[in-house]
C-alpha cells in the first residue's frame, strides 16, 4: 500500500456524501497529487423486503472513511503539503476528526489497510432463507429456544425480518411469542 492511510471519523450515514465532498474539494484545490484516494469500504448484504431478496452495498465501517495521502498529515508536520491536506480534510463538511491524537493523526499500518480493504471485498455469508410455505393459521412446533417443544398457531408472518408471531398455550392461557423462521417446523 503506497503512501499514508488515515481513518477519518464522519457523521454516520454520510459516508458517500463526505466522499463526494472530499473528492470535490480535492479537485477544486488541485490536490489530486497529494490526496490520492478517498475510500468508503463497502460490504454486500442481502436484505429481504416484501418477500424478495435484494443485494445492496452497506459501508463496512459506518461513520468512517479511509484517506490515502502521499505525505504525513497534521497541523504540526514539517511538510506544508501535509498541513494543507490535513486542513482541507478537517474543514470538509461532515468530517468530525481523524483517528489518533488530535494534533498528529496516526496513519494505519500497511497490514491494517490491507485487512480493511480486503474485508470490504469479501462476500458476507448469507444465512439460508427457509422455504416459506407457512401461512397464517398453520400449526407449527417450536424447535429452538426457551419455548422448544411447544406447538401453536401462526398469527402473523414478517418476511422482511424473517420472523413470525405464534400463539401458544402457556399455563392454560393463549400467549403470543415472536420467533425467527428457523426456530419452528411444520407439524405433520
Please tag this protein with its features.
single chain; 188 residues; alpha+beta; Alpha-Beta Plaits; SH3 type barrels; 2 domains; five-stranded antiparallel sheet; four-stranded antiparallel sheet; 11 strands; 20% helix
Strand content: 35-45%
Number of domains: 2
Q: How many helices in DSSP terms?
A: 3
**Poorly predicted parts:** none
The neighbouring-strand order within the major sheet is 10-9-8-7-11
SS content category: alpha+beta
CATH class of the largest domain: Alpha Beta
Number of strands: 11
Main sheet attributes: strand count, strand direction, barrel closure: 5 strands, antiparallel
- From the spread of the alpha carbons, the general shape counts as elongated
CATH evolutionary superfamily of the largest domain: NusG, N-terminal domain
CATH topology of the largest domain: Alpha-Beta Plaits
CATH architecture of the largest domain: 2-Layer Sandwich
Helix content: 10-25%
Note the gap between the termini.
59 Å
SSE series:
EHEEEEHEHEEEEE
Radius of gyration: 25 Å
Mean pLDDT figure? 84
What does this structure look like?
This protein is of the alpha+beta class and 188 residues long. The chain has 2 domains: 4-121, NusG, N-terminal domain (Alpha-Beta Plaits, 2-Layer Sandwich), CATH 3.30.70.940; 139-186, SH3 type barrels, CATH 2.30.30. It has 3 helices and 11 strands, in the order βαββββαβαβββββ. The chain has helices at residues 15-28, 80-90, 110-121; strands at 4-10, 35-39, 42-49, 52-59, 64-69, 95-98, 139-142, 151-158, 163-170, 173-180, 184-186. The strands form 3 sheets. A 5-stranded antiparallel sheet has the order 10-9-8-7-11, with no helix packed on it. A 4-stranded antiparallel sheet has the order 2-5-1-6, with helices on one face. β8 (151-158) and β9 (163-170) form a beta hairpin. The chain is elongated and about 75 Å long. The mean pLDDT is 84.
Amino acid at each position: 500500500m503506497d503512501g499514508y492511510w488515515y481513518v477519518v471519523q464522519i457523521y454516520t450515514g454520510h459516508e458517500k456524501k463526505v466522499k463526494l465532498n472530499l473528492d470535490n474539494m480535492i479537485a477544486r484545490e488541485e490536490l489530486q497529487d497529494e490526496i490520492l484516494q478517498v475510500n468508503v469500504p463497502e460490504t454486500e448484504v442481502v436484505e429481504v423486503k416484501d418477500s424478495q431478496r435484494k443485494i445492496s452495498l452497506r459501508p463496512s465501517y459506518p461513520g468512517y472513511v479511509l484517506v490515502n495521502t502521499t505525505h504525513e498529515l497534521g497541523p504540526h508536520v514539517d511538510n506544508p503539503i501535509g498541513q494543507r491536506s490535513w486542513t482541507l480534510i478537517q474543514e470538509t463538511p461532515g468530517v468530525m476528526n481523524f483517528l489518533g491524537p488530535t494534533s498528529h493523526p496516526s496513519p494505519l499500518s500497511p497490514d491494517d489497510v490491507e485487512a480493511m480493504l480486503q474485508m470490504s471485498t469479501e462476500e458476507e455469508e448469507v444465512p439460508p432463507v427457509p422455504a416459506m410455505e407457512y401461512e397464517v393459521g398453520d400449526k407449527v412446533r417450536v424447535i429452538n429456544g426457551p419455548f422448544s417443544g411447544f406447538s401453536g398457531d401462526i398469527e402473523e408472518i414478517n418476511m422482511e425480518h424473517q420472523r413470525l408471531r405464534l400463539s401458544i398455550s402457556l399455563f392454560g392461557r393463549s400467549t403470543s411469542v415472536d420467533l425467527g423462521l428457523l426456530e419452528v417446523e411444520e407439524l405433520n
